[in-house]
Amino acid sequence: MDIVFEDNHILIINKKAGQLSQSDKTGDISVLDLCKSYIKKKYNKNGNVFLGLVNRIDRPASGLLILAKTSKCLKRMNKILRLREIKKTYFAVIEKGSINNSGKLVDYLKKNEKKNKSFVVNKKIKGSKKSILTYELIKKLNNYYVVKINIETGRHHQIRAQFSNINCSIKGDVKYGAKRANNDFSICLHSSILEFTHPITKKELKIEAKFPNSKIWNSF
Fold first, then answer.
1. Residue 175: DSSP 8-state
2. To the nearest 10°, the Cα dihedral for 180, 30, 42, 51?
């Protein structure tokens, strides 16, 4: 695990691509499982360890995961998320397409549970949710663009679905239209920066995570 921040209330991890945020039907060990084991060993705790997952990151993506050490902190962090009082900055490597140097994407997304995939739909469809993000083009590579993204809403597969909808799929994300998979089956989407007020200490936090160590990320 790559621990980026820790105090008595919060643990923040830089999740690697391929790791599960929390357990699913695959039975593979998750970051939540690893962190519980870490806390149990570090603090010599007996019995079960309380640890609540505040946010989630898709398995093939990487970046910052927040875990709350107490139920009080978890409740307050969930409120911060619900009120959109946390600024989330992502970086993505996307396939070249017709895209402005900066812009705002506003779409309605509907999740298909069977396919575990979200689709851009007409807002009149039942169950659709408004999804908003802003982006800035920060570098042009030979075959790809690098974009900096801030999301205003936290929808299922939001960034992946919205960029796919404008024919700029994230590198490696074949589920959302990328031309080819990455060798390690990751996608080039990284949750890089989180900014929020600590729910207990009230300190202003700006947490940053290193980029994955790979050729495409190291290129910029």
1. G
2. 120
CB 143 within 8 A of CB 96: yes
Spatial distance between the Cα atoms of 187 and 205, rounded to a whole number of angstroms = 27
Q: Structure tokens of 30? A: 């998750």
- For residue 3, the cross-strand partners are 13
Task: Kindly give the confidence (pLDDT) of every residue in the chain, 220 residues in length, as a single tens digit, with 9 standing for 90 and above.
Answer: 899 999 999 999 999 999 999 887 777 899 999 999 999 999 888 888 899 999 999 999 999 999 999 999 999 999 999 999 999 999 999 999 889 999 999 999 999 999 999 999 988 789 899 999 999 999 999 889 999 999 999 899 999 999 999 999 999 999 999 999 999 999 999 999 999 999 999 999 999 999 999 888 988 7
- Cβ atoms 155, 148 nearer than 8 A: no
Per-residue exposure over 101-134, b if at least 16 CB sit within 10 Å of its own CB, e if not: eeeebebbbbbeeeeebbbbeeeeeeebbebbbe
Are β-strands 52-53 and 102-112 bridged in parallel, bridged antiparallel, or unpaired?
Answer: unpaired
How would you class 49 by CB atoms within 10 Å of its CB: exposed for 0-12, middle for 13-18, buried for 19 or more? middle
How far is the C-alpha of 158 from the C-alpha of 161, rounded, in Å?
5
Residue whose token pair is 């807002």: 123
| Overall pTM surpassing 0.85 (yes/no) | yes
Instruction: Report domain extents, the chain.
Output: 3-218
Specify the CATH number for 3-218; select among 3.40.50.2000, 3.90.79.10, 3.30.70.20, 3.30.2350.10: 3.30.2350.10
